C-alpha cells in the first residue's frame, strides 16, 4: 500500500512539472523576423540615340579638348608684302673674271593660302609678284679720262609658290618654319646703265642725245633698255622663318624673314642675237666714246667668251633675302 502511494506521488510531481498550472500564461514565443522582399532588378536606362560628332572650328595650333569634338581642317587666306634684297651667284658675270655683282633692292606682294593638315602643319601655296636683280660697277681708265659704268638689271616675275608650313602650337603666338619651291614667269626686265666720265686734265667731249657736241670736265649719261637675253622662266626653292600673332579669334598678322635661290639662269644662253641688236640700237652717243665693258655685247676688242651671235657664257642663279609681313584670316 505504501509502495503504491509513493509511485502515485512521483507521477503527480512529474505531471506538475510538465503541465503548467491552470491560470498561468505560457511564455510568449519570440517573433520570427519578417522576410525581406527580394530586390527588384534595376531597370536598364533606355539606349541613347547615337549623336554625330560635333565639328568644331578651331584655331590652328590647338588640339582637341575631348572625344566629342572632331578636328575640322581649316583654311587660312592672307595678304603678304615685303622687300627683296637680291643678287646673283655662279660663274663670273659675262664670262669675265673680276666683274663683281652687288645686291639690288626690290619688293614682293602676293596672296597666301594655307590648308590645315594638323595642329602643327599646313600646306602653303599662293600667287605673288616679285622683282629681283643685281647691279655691277666697274671702271675703265686711260691717260686722258676715267669712266665708271654702273649697271642695274631688274627682273619682274609672277610667282606661284607651294610648300609646307610647320608651326609650334603656342597659343596666340605661333613660330613657324616653311619650305618649298616656286615657279616664276617673267613679265618684264630693265637694264639701267649709267656712265660717268671725268677728264683728268682740261675738258673733253661729253655728248648727250640733247647736245651731241657738249664739252665738260665731267659728265654722266644714262640709258634704259630691256635686259638682253632675259630668260622667261624662273624656278627655285624658298624657305621662311617667322611668327604668327592672333589679333582676334579669326584675324591675325605675321612677320618673317626668308631666303630663295633659283635653279635656273636669269639670262638665256640660247638667245640668238636679239639681245645684241637691242643693246646696239639703244646706245647713246656717250657710249660711242667709251672703251669696251663686259656688259656691252656689241663692244669690240674684249674677249668675253662670247659666241658668234654675241652670247655670253653665263651660269647664274638668283639669290634673294626677303623680309615679309602680312595679315591673315582663318575660317
Describe the protein.
This protein is rod-shaped. It has one domain: Porin (Beta Barrel), CATH 2.40.160.20. The strands form 3 sheets. Strands 3-5-6-7-8-12-13-14 form an 8-stranded antiparallel barrel. It contains 2 helices and 14 strands, in the order H-E-E-E-E-E-E-E-E-E-E-E-E-E-H-E. The N and C termini lie far apart (127 Å). It has 331 residues and is mostly beta strands. The longest helix has 17 residues, at 2-18.
Write the layout of secondary structure elements.
Layout lengths: L1 H17 L35 E3 L12 E3 L3 E16 L10 E2 L1 E15 L2 E21 L3 E23 L5 E27 L4 E2 L9 E2 L1 E8 L7 E14 L4 E12 L11 H8 L34 E15 L1
Parallel strand pairs: 1-2
Antiparallel strand pairs: 3-5, 3-14, 4-6, 5-6, 6-7, 7-8, 8-11, 8-12, 9-10, 12-13, 13-14
**Strand order, largest beta sheet:** 3-5-6-7-8-12-13-14
Shape: rod-shaped
CATH architecture: Beta Barrel
| Overall strand count | 14
CATH topology value: Porin
Rounded to the nearest angstrom, the distance between the terminal CA atoms is 127 Å
CATH class: Mainly Beta
Top keywords for this entry?
49% strand, two-stranded parallel ribbon, mainly beta, rod-shaped, 14 strands, single chain, 331 residues, Porin, 2 helices
Brief synopsis:
This protein has about 325 residues and is mainly beta.
Amino acid at each position: 500500500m505504501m509502495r503504491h502511494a509513493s509511485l502515485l506521488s512521483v507521477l503527480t510531481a512529474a505531471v506538475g512539472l510538465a503541465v503548467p498550472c491552470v491560470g498561468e500564461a505560457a511564455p510568449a514565443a519570440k517573433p520570427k523576423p519578417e522576410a525581406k522582399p527580394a530586390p527588384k532588378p534595376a531597370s536598364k536606362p533606355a539606349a541613347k540615340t547615337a549623336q554625330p560628332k560635333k565639328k568644331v572650328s578651331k584655331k590652328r595650333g590647338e588640339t582637341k579638348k575631348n572625344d566629342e569634338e572632331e578636328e575640322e581642317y581649316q583654311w587660312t587666306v592672307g595678304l603678304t608684302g615685303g622687300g627683296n634684297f637680291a643678287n646673283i651667284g655662279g660663274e663670273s658675270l659675262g664670262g669675265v673674271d673680276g666683274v663683281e655683282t652687288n645686291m639690288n633692292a626690290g619688293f614682293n606682294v602676293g596672296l597666301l593660302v594655307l590648308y590645315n593638315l594638323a595642329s602643327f602643319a599646313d600646306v602653303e601655296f599662293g600667287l605673288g609678284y616679285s622683282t629681283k636683280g643685281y647691279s655691277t660697277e666697274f671702271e675703265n681708265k686711260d691717260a686722258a679720262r676715267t669712266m665708271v659704268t654702273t649697271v642695274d638689271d631688274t627682273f619682274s616675275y609672277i610667282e606661284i609658290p607651294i610648300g609646307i608650313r610647320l608651326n609650334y602650337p603656342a597659343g596666340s603666338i605661333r613660330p613657324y618654319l616653311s619650305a618649298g619651291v616656286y615657279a616664276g614667269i617673267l613679265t618684264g626686265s630693265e637694264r639701267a646703265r649709267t656712265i660717268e666720265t671725268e677728264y683728268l686734265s682740261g675738258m673733253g667731249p661729253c655728248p648727250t642725245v640733247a647736245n651731241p657736241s657738249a664739252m665738260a670736265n665731267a659728265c654722266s649719261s644714262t640709258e634704259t633698255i630691256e635686259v638682253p637675253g632675259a630668260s622667261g622662266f624662273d624656278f627655285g626653292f624658298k624657305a621662311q622663318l617667322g611668327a604668327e600673332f592672333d589679333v582676334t579669334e579669326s584675324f591675325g598678322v605675321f612677320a618673317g624673314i626668308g631666303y630663295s635661290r633659283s635653279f635656273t639662269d636669269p639670262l638665256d644662253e640660247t638667245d640668238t642675237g636679239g639681245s645684241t641688236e637691242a643693246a646696239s640700237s639703244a646706245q647713246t652717243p656717250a657710249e660711242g666714246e667709251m672703251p669696251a665693258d663686259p656688259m656691252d655685247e656689241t663692244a669690240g676688242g674684249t674677249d668675253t667668251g662670247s659666241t658668234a651671235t654675241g652670247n655670253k657664257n653665263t651660269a647664274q642663279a638668283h639669290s634673294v633675302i626677303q623680309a615679309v609681313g602680312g595679315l591673315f584670316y582663318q575660317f
